[in-house]
Every structure is written in C-alpha cells, then in structure tokens.
C-alpha cells in the first residue's frame, strides 16, 4: 500500500492501558489469548492463508495469531499500541538472532519474514521495502463495550491504504449474548459503570456490529462465519486474571477499584465453576470477511 501517513493510535486496536502492563500482558499471553485459537484457525482455513499471504495484524497483542499464520508460511507484520504485548510478541516471533540450534546452526523460520511494531498502521507504512499486504486482520473482538468500534474505524481506514485492492480484511466480534456464557460476567463492567454514570461499560453485541464497522471504513462485506471459542481456566484465580487482561473491565476499575471488580467477577463466575474447580464458559464468536474496493 502507498499510504497517507495519519497518526491513529486508538485503543480498540490494542490492549487497553494498565498500571501493571507487563504483568497483565503476561496474563493475556499465558491465560487468555489461547481462547481465540479456534477463531484464528477458522479464518486462516477460510482464506487459505499460506506462503502467498502478506498479513498485517492490527492489535496483534502478544503474537499468537501471527505465529499461527507464519507457521502456514505467511509473511506477517503486527502492530499494537500496547508496548508490553509487543515485547512479548517479539520474544515469541523474533528470537535472539544469535541463538543456535543443536549443531551450532543459526535458527531460522518466521524471523526474516516478521515485523512487530509498537503503534498502528502508520508504523507499518514506514517500511517502504515491504510489498502491499493482501490480508488485514483485526482479531480483537468488538461488540460488547460501548464505543469500542469507534476507534477501530480510523485504524482500518489507515490500514487499507497499505493493502492491494480486493484484499481481505477480517473483523471479529462477540456472538449473541445468549450464546456467550461470558456475557454474564461481562455485565459486571456494565453494572459498575452505570452505577457511577461513566462510559465504556458492557453492552449486548448487536447483529450488524461488524458490518457497520466495515461500512464506515469503506469495505464491502464478503462472507462471515461463527466459531465456538469456549473460555476454560484452571481455577477461579486464573479466570479473573485472564478476564482482567482483556481490558474489558478497565472502565469498571476506574469507576470503582480493582478489588471490587475482582470480587464481582469472582461472584459472576460461580455458575461456571465445575466440580473439579475448573471454570468453563462456552462462547460463540463471529468473524466478517470484507474486501477493499
């Protein structure tokens, strides 16, 4: 893409801020991120991601989705405005170039094909040596936080300037609340923010959330799918840490305090605790494939 450089660093394309950013990024990478693996796999299978794919991942987080695409042979670039998550992604995808394997041979793999950048699409645009992308992904699910789509639209608009015409742009969102057990836990954020008249709380996902965002970014819908992404945790503590790492409770923490939010999440998790102490919440996520005209 030959881009106009306009600085956009909206938080919906990234993990929201945290006072303990490294700790929460680690919780995301070690606990929560894997919950979306079925979504990544379904999208990559649907679009036949492989050696001819040049992927730009918006809000790439700690890089698991990029790693899966690189394993299929794709050339990947990831951008995120959460520095702690980008640092973890670099550990995952860009190992020490001096590292060696058993026989003293330098490691290879996705390293030469991978770029991980702190910021947004404009940082990716600065790499004029890289050919235009033919796939853009925004896997951070939208549709359950008030206003979460607003910041994504300018990010997408900037990103599509870096891609070839006809390229696929993938958006992800939460499914209907009645098919997402986690919705009951996310309502904690809504209750706390409503009580204190602050914004950013939970709202039910709407049927056309993804289509609306695509339309505002000038994209043409070209198919969609639904994927089961159950959230499973070893125990309640892991569940609370994993859910907090998503950033979906940030407004609730600001409206009250962390201890209150942790307590209310724990109480909301009770119906989902199994006899062995594990936590299991079935969910359905939706993805939309749109095309750049």
From TrEMBL:
Which Pfam families would you find in this protein's record?
A: Methyltransf_11
Q: Where is this region: Disordered?
A: 1-24, 92-112
Query: Cross-referenced InterPro entries, in alphabetical order?
Result: Methyltransf_11, SAM-dependent_MTases_sf
For bias type Basic residues, the affected ranges are 1-11
BP GO annotations: methylation
- Report domain Methyltransferase type positions: 56-93
Work out whether the entry's keyword set contains Hydrolase: no
Keywords (alphabetical) are: Methyltransferase, Transferase
| UniProt KW Transferase keyword | yes
Please list the GO terms describing molecular function: methyltransferase activity
**What is the protein name stated in its UniProt record?**
Methyltransferase domain-containing protein
